[in-house]
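Appendix B, example 12.
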Amino acid sequence: MNRLITIAFIFICHICIAQNKLGAIGSWRGHFDNHSIRQVIKGDAIYAASPYQIIKLDGTNNPSWIDKTTGLSDIDIAYLAWDPILKQLVITYENSNVDILKEDQVYNINAIELSSLYTDHKINGLSIYNNWGLLSTNFGVVVIDLLKHEIKDTWFPNNSQQPTITYDVAIVNDSVFVATNNGIWACPFNNNWIQSNLWAHLTNYDALYIKHFTQKNNTLFAYNSSSLYQIPNTSIIFKTTAGSIQKIDSTANSLNISIQYPNNKGAIIQLTNNFNPSSLIDSTILAAPMQTVFDNSSYWIADNALGLLQKNNTTKWIDLGGPKANIQGVASINEHNLLAPFNNVNGYASFNENGWNSYAQIASRPVPTLYASTVSKVDGSAWFTSKTGLLHITNNTSIEAIQPNTIVGDYKCIQTDQNNSIWAIQDNQGIVRQTNSGWANIPLPNNFTNKGLDQFVINNQQQAWVIAPNKQGIYIYQSKDIFKTEVWNQLTTQASNGNLPSNNVTSIANDKTGSIWVGTDNGIGIFNCGDISSEPCNAYLPIVNNNGFNGYLFQKEIIKTIAIDGANRKWIGTNNGAWLLSADGLEIIAHFTISNSPLPSDTILQILIAPNTGEVFFNTSKQMVSFRGTATQGNETQNTIQIFPNPVPPSFNGIIAFRGLVDNAIVKITDLTGKLLYQTNAIGGQAIWNGKTYEGHKVATGIYLVFVRDLSGNEKGVGKIVIADGY
């Protein structure tokens, strides 16, 4: 028996595989794009894997999603394999972490990831043999006991017991074959046992640079990026000169070769039992095929650029949910939709509770590459910025291109002001603003740098706060809508002229009281300014206590984004995760990172908050996830409220929420006799209750009344909660 990896921690958690619907308060869901499918396998269902998510298809091709938000341990999925004996899914990740998914439980084996024995833990391949998972790594072959969910052994395919880079492993006819950086090595395999000093070096293959195996009818085949061989022969069975072999998969009657050609083209070449090649799917359909599996008269093809293809009597791409591309533009959100420009490719995506829809053309007209979005408060139509102008799209059916001027300069951030007019930043120029007669140009003063303009916000006083390029602080444009004087000012770190914590401003937001929160590479400054033509405008720098030491808020931290929730609390995105602060910024309520949450990355690019549900969307450097928060937008007047869940099963241990309240409303829960059981305040427009009394006792089954006091002090009976069996 060979040396074991000494660290073998195993973690178990439950997983929920379901449709991606809005969950309870505190729950998460993923919003990953699935245009890149790198693997497809057959198990108890068809499983397809993108870098961030596994998609399980039922018999009618309806998807359910398995990822870090539903219980997996990690992201950056490397390999999948199905264990047909124990009926479980084995998952490896790029960081060498391993999950085993059996029914609703995930068993995590992080021994390889955490091991200090070897400097390079990369997993290069995964295969299943009986009750073993065989991991080809950059130091040897790691054997996982799939019954005990633990590491069983480590094989070094040489006779010197030295770590060796291994690419693939196969067990055929009582022999183990391993493709390594030193060629192919084989060893007798008797009664599930190998002896480390019996490895044989198949030197005839050394010059062929074999990295992969495939099996068919107890025959072993080996291949490199261009050629296929049958072990133990070295004559070429198949060779491609125009492309690169990605993977070869076998069925009872054929070998299916996934080939990548130049210029984003690919094909599946099929070899029948006599090794005659034919085209199964040609390059007019595929772009980057990675793997093929056959099931129930259908071929399933994973394509790294286009998604998942099903071929039987017809050929169709399967809708796997999510946006069609990675969201790299500046998104916006309102009560109905999240609008997300792709920026890296043409088009945009829209999300609501019916799911994601992506648009590359409107009314047969191609949509260009878009940078930022906003929604009109008048008619709900969408506005976008592009390189050459603005795009106005109504109901995703009609499109209007608008060019406010003939000045050369990309259009960047776009906003809707309190009067429902559109403002946008134009690089190399300044601001364009919608007026009754068309569009007005508001150029920067000649002494202001105008190259590199990007972000800005419009505040309640119709002032535009613009992040100045080249680490020059902030430019403020004051219109004459509120104040008498139209003026531009520049704010910097000077104590009497801005008092910014740094001139490198990285983010900016307008809160519910009209305060401007400015994020920099050295923390946060808060502005409450009036007429900037006659009054000083300087930041207040909050001082907080951190482990007994006082310091400025987020000092030495890069503030990448700031968002305001329904309770005026601040969500702060940094390179070290996302933070939830109290309205004044002096209290840390929550801090999410990749280690304590399903965030796919600690680098937070943008945070958006759905006003009516309190759902917080985190767009990170590795795609988007969302979290069901506790605060919603408050109503103007108190009418009826929404209570969920309702009815409540007695076994329910989650949060009961009351939505549709006025800001900071008082909520009282009583029994039918009027006895007060619990009282709380709304967080924005939503209050929460854990189903317990003040004393911490869980309430019994029955009917409970909910009373809400609105801002005028009136108390109204607005609903009831039913706690009963059968729900």
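Helices lie at 111-114. The chain has one helix and 67 strands.
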